[in-house]
Structure formats: C-alpha cells, structure tokens
Amino acid sequence: MQNPVTVEVTRGNLVESRHRGLGVVVDGDGKVVFSFGDVDAGVFPRSACKAMQALPLMESGAADAYGFGNKELAFSCASHSGEDAHAAMAASMLAKAGRDVSALECGAHWASEQSVLIHQARTIDKPSALHNNCSGKHSGFVCACVHSGTELRGYVNYEHPLQAEIRGIMENLTGAVLGEDNCGTDGCSIPTYAVPLKGLAHGFAKMLTGNGLAPERAKASRRLMEACMAEPFYVAGTNRACTKLMEVAPGKIFAKTGAEGVFVAALPDRGLAMAVKCEDGTTRAAEAMIFALIARYLENGGEVQTKLMSMANRSMKNWNGIHVGDVRVTDAMFS
Amino acid sequence: MQNPVTVEVTRGNLVESRHRGLGVVVDGDGKVVFSFGDVDAGVFPRSACKAMQALPLMESGAADAYGFGNKELAFSCASHSGEDAHAAMAASMLAKAGRDVSALECGAHWASEQSVLIHQARTIDKPSALHNNCSGKHSGFVCACVHSGTELRGYVNYEHPLQAEIRGIMENLTGAVLGEDNCGTDGCSIPTYAVPLKGLAHGFAKMLTGNGLAPERAKASRRLMEACMAEPFYVAGTNRACTKLMEVAPGKIFAKTGAEGVFVAALPDRGLAMAVKCEDGTTRAAEAMIFALIARYLENGGEVQTKLMSMANRSMKNWNGIHVGDVRVTDAMFS
C-alpha cells in the first residue's frame, strides 16, 4: 500500500518538497475510527512509547516509594531538551534511589535545540548523561531496578529483566508479538520494537481508557498520562512540540514524539488515541500531521482547533524575516 | 511519474524510513546518460546553483580587478559553515571593494554545524551577516555591483540589475524560461527559480565543457569550478559533504549542495554533470544519492569509487557508539 502525500512544503507558488505518511485514530476497544496509509506496517515507535516504558516505575511501587509527583512522572516519559531544569531533575530522581549520573547507561550528547546548545556551550565544558534527552526515562529505569532489588548494570540490554518486563507490557498494550526479529537498538541503547502503527495507537487508547487492562496497569497508565499533561515542560522543553501541544489545552491532549517522524497523542474527552509516522522520518511533517489529526477531533471552529490548524499549516520565514513559503497538510489528512 | 525509493534508513533488520528521489546525469550536449524519477519536474536548485550565480563576479571583471584567487572564487560559490576563516574571508572580500558587513543583505544566523555553533557560542555574542552561510556569494554580489558601478542597495531584489543578469545567465545555462511564475525567495533573500532537474544538470555540464557557451562564459565557468575543486574548505567547511567530496579526488569532482535535498556534481574527466533532489527535502538522502551517482562514473573497484560507496552506504551509531542501523542507497540508483 502506497502512503499518501500528507504534508507539502511550498516556496513561492510551487511545492518544493513532499512528505508521505501514515496515521490512525483508534478507540479503547481497538476500533479504527480513521486512517490513511499502510497502518499495518511495522513502525519503530522510538521515544513515542516512553509512557509505556515508564510503567515498571509505577507498577513496581518505586514511584510512590520515592515520593515522585507529576514532575518526576512526566520526566520519566520525556524526550527533553537538556535544559538546566531537566538535568537537575534527572540528578534529583537518581539521588532518591541513592544513585548518581554514573548509573545511567544512555550516553551523553549536546542539546539539539539551538538556544539550549548555545546556553550549554557557555555554561558547561561538555554534556553528561544527565543532559541526554532520555535521562528521565533512564532515571526512572534506575529507580525501578533499585527499588525492586534487580541488578542495575546492563539495564539497557535485551536480556535484562527490566527490558523483558517492558517487552511484556508493550505486547499487552499493542497486541504485537515482540522479539529479536522486530527489535532494533534505540539512540539511548535500549531495545525498540517495530509494531504496526494501529497497534501503537491502540496501546495508547488502552492506557487512556483502561479498556482491557488489569486495574493496576490501567491506573498506572492514566496517572502517567495525567502527569505529562500536568507538567508538559518536563516532557520536552521550551518551544518543543510536545510541550506546546499539551499547553494549548491543559488536560485535554496527551502527546509524545519519537525520532524518525513518529508522534502519538490521546484525547481524554474523546477516549481516542492516534499515531502518525512520516515515511521519510522527518519531524516537521510528523508534527504537522499530529497537529491536524488532533484538530480533527476537537470542537469545530473552536479556539483550540483553530490554534492547532495554525500550527499544522505554518508560514516559513527566512533570515530576514521575509515569508518564503509554508508547511501545509494535504487533503489526505481530512478525507 | 512516481519518484522511486532511492535511500533507505534501517534499524536492526528492518527499514525504518524511506526517501524518494530523482536524479539525472547529462553530458555537455544535454544528452541524458542516466536518470531516475521525474527529472522534468521543476526543482528549486537553492544553493546548488551558486557557481552559476557567481558568474557576474567573473564576467564583470570584478574578480580580476580585486585580485581574487581560488579561495575567494570558491567562497563566492559557497554555502559555508560560518567558521572563523569563513567570516574573515567575507570581510576581506568586502574590504577589497571598500565595503563592510553593513553592505550584506543576506541576514544573520548561528551556525547549523554543532561543533561550529559551540565555538561561536563561546567566542561571539551573536552572529553577523559575515557568518551567514551565503556571505561568500553575497560578498561576490557586492563586489560585482561596486566594480560595475551598479546601485548596491536592494541587490537581492528580483528587479535589481544583478538579479536580472543572473536570471539571464541561468536561462542560458539551464534552457528554462525564468520569471515570477517559477520564482521563490531563498533563505538569503535573493530569487530562486524552479527549473527541471535535467536542465539544472545540463547547465553544469555546459559550465564544465563549455559546450554551447560564449567563450567568455565558458572560461569564467571553468575557472569557478576549478577554484571550488582547489579550495573545497571555502565551499563548505570542516566535515561538510561538499568539502569531503572534492577532497576525496582533487580536481576530479566538483560538487555543491542546496537546501531541501538538492545536490549537483560534475566530473571533468568524464565531461558529465549530474543533479539529484530528495522528494522530501532531506539532506542525508541527497548526500547518499550524489555519493552513489558520482561513484557510478568512476573507475570500477577503484579507491575513490570504494570510498564514495562507503559514504553512500554508511553505518549509524548511537550515543554509546553502538551500531544501530544504516543509511543505504537502493537498486533504483544502479538499474
């Protein structure tokens, strides 16, 4: 199945570049409400499924034992920008479990956001694992292992009990069978599993509604999503898409991006979850798709819908502030 | 016409993202030697055609009057990284014409290369127009206007005599009719014109071979391309694709990238020029395509061909240095 062109980038009166994509909206029972493209194809969710990967932190009782509130829980689901407050939060979570940065196995990298990188360059010699965009998830991993007495070293490996537990959770949520055949290694070294986009969306619909989940998992899932919606800065950072999406309508939109053009969202008031993937892996297109797809399920003509569509169809300016073109979603998003 | 998938990005055993593209190889007479995708479609060359836009600097006599050598000529065709040597070169060229940074109309921006941005953040308060990736081209524009006595202000505008001259040059080279209908505004505020990819490649084949060009234009064209091949650092910068391509086989490969996934190249020993465009505008795919397309026309099994194919099909590592997947070109590049 051919994935349709879902996002166009224009210059002058012409289309300069085109992005193809797939997307799906699912309810708590797994019913597909809307879709475009090949949504049965396997897609690596990458960081979009971090809220699923944070469930052991909740279900083990570690989050409660360490007194984690919304900020810590949101941060355990984060792909953050490595701002000062993010690095401090990672250090603080690790300290609750009596550990420090040396426990993290995610590696270190400079910030990818320009303004954050400039600040980092001026204030630190080099970044540590605390600045890694995945340090919140990894701090949560460390806390879960320490609390349950699991050997910490190697917690990123496929064979480690924590990753086996996450694999089971993701099978339960997505309905996909996960194993070495559909496993890859993520940027932060943990396993990532390709699942049909439909299954990924269904997993988030289950987390949102609790449908088909054990009561403890349903409660833990809802608490993580509510924490993200309550503290969106700790899920991403200043001017980031996830943060902006959750700030635009507090408590009404859960959203999380993943590398290579993935985005998931859930709408508590509608009981729906959705997932998109840009075929070519480009973030600008994944963002436009999820903005427009969420807008489709909001009050028609309402303030939030209008705001989201202005984020989906946005003007591009050059270094002199001159309008040079637009990013815009196509009819494939609305048919 | 559907553009084929030309580049795949893998993770584990699976393809995670796919890029579609178009590409064409043309000789000096305009004969298409090889192509894939819709090469008659209009494509904005963006910065890939900077050597064409530098012809007024040569043909006006300004380059000789100001004593410009290979470094200055290469820099007038550059999309550079804003390294210290680049900013200094822009200032030096402007000084030859009795002007300074205030004459530049390209706007200012921080470097996009991470290592350069970190250095800039630590050494300057904010970037000036000298650091703009197009400051070499714009310094050349300023020199051409000052030398010929043309009013300088507004040199970026469609109506300005310099842009009208460039429009005529590009029509002569590409065979396309250029006007407001296929005109957009580039990142540095000058007009950019969508031309069929085939015409763009033919333009560079004419510049390389001189076929069909007035002697003065043929000579100026060849001199600019030779300057780029002689001083590849001044065309882009440390670790940049254009620079690496021209360093791998000195004097045998001319190459220039453009925004939104465009790349052109020319091979003096073969009398061939080529152009590629990634449909979705992604640089990683444009680079893989041009590396593989150039390799196709080099000595089979030779050192340079092997090196270029290892650049086209490259391993991706994560923050811990673990191999997570590959960028690879598909059979569409070789059929």
Automatic annotation (TrEMBL), chains A, B:
Entry superkingdom: Bacteria
Name of protein: Asparaginase
Pfam families: Asparaginase_II (PF06089)
InterPro entries cross-referenced by the UniProt entry: Asparaginase_II
